[in-house]
Amino acid sequence: MKAMKTALFSLFFLIITAASFSAYAANVITIENECVTVEDVFPGIGIKDQVFCGLDYGETRKLSVQLATHIINKYNIKAAPGEAYFNRRGKKIQMSEIEARIYDRLSQIYPNAEIQIEKVRIQSDIYTDDSGRFSIDISNPRIGGMYGRLNNGFKEVGFTVYVKGFIEVFVTTDRIRKGDLIANNIKVEKVDLSRLRGEPITNPEGLIAVRGLGAGVPITSEYVSEQPDLPEGAAVRLVYNGSGLHLEARGILQENAFSGSIIKVKNADSGKIVTAKYQGGRTAVVNF
């Protein structure tokens, strides 16, 4: 039996050393796990000790003559040393799969947008297990250049993706002054998402510009607000209520006023700016 095992090991390494490995020839041994064991090198020996680990899915690594010699000496194996290649079984991820996964992720973030993936930069030949499962995470999901990571179940691989996105939004057709209603000076137009500053509005009725806007500006929440009950700069009756004290003065709104809102009002006589509650009817009350 011992002579037979010695002969088998000698035959194993004779096959290995006889082949040309410049092109990985015929001696690529496929394994299922990330670690190559002595049993993988010498089938039938029954020794599960690890020779080396860290094989990614689809990765091929060489067992050198020097390492083979070390194993033979360590375990007192009667065999001639040679070299071999070990490949961990894996399924290659196609670029189309990566792009589709990125597209799905961005479609969740921008559900109403038309997404166009321009380019993905990632290392070639990434593999998974036979199930083909992998996940995508994008750390800065903004239109333009994005950075993300692909996890194949064994390790993470970084990638960069360049994306364009388009969405239909309201766009100004003419110049709109601060405080003017916007509904009569807008149209729906498809624009590049990179031009947007804030969330696009969905209903322009009753909205005013919070700053002057030129023609062709995509309307977002940063540029508009609801039409106030009384606009900034309007005159109000400023009422001071205190312990048995009631005073009135002229006030000037320092911001748009909505009924029940807390606002800044300038006392027209003293020039002092106070915090007041706007009660409607051009009346702001200061309680002290």
Molecular structure report:
The structure is a single chain. It is elongated, with a radius of gyration of 36 Å. A hairpin with a 5-residue loop joins β9 and β10. Helix content is 16%, strand content 38%. By secondary structure, the protein is of the alpha+beta class. 22% of the residues are buried. The protein folds into 4 domains: 2-89, no CATH class; 92-165, no CATH class; 167-226, Antifreeze-like/N-acetylneuraminic acid synthase C-terminal domain (Type Iii Antifreeze Protein Isoform Hplc 12, Alpha-Beta Complex), CATH 3.90.1210; 235-287, SH3 type barrels. It has helices at residues 2-18, 38-41, 65-74, 95-109; strands at residues 28-31, 36-37, 50-52, 60-63, 84-88, 91-92, 114-121, 127-128, 135-138, 144-151, 156-172, 186-192, 207-209, 224-226, 235-242, 245-253, 262-267, 273-280, 283-287. The strands form 6 sheets. Strands 7, 9, 10, 11 and 12 form a 5-stranded antiparallel sheet that branches.
Task: Give a brief outline of the structure.
With 288 residues, the chain is α+β, with helices and mostly antiparallel strands.
Task: Name its key features.
4 domains; five-stranded mixed barrel; Type Iii Antifreeze Protein Isoform Hplc 12; 288 residues
Count the domains: 4
Euclidean distance between termini CA atoms: 104 Å
DSSP strand content:
35-45%
Largest sheet: 5 strands, antiparallel
Q: Give the class from helix and strand content and strand pairing.
A: alpha+beta
List the helices and strands and how they pair.
Layout: H1 2-18, E1 28-31, E2 36-37, H2 38-41, E3 50-52, E4 60-63, H3 65-74, E5 84-88, E6 91-92, H4 95-109, E7 114-121, E8 127-128, E9 135-138, E10 144-151, E11 156-172, E12 186-192, E13 207-209, E14 224-226, E15 235-242, E16 245-253, E17 262-267, E18 273-280, E19 283-287
Parallel strand pairs: 1-5, 15-19
Antiparallel strand pairs: 2-3, 4-5, 6-8, 7-11, 9-10, 10-11, 11-12, 13-14, 15-16, 16-17, 17-18, 18-19
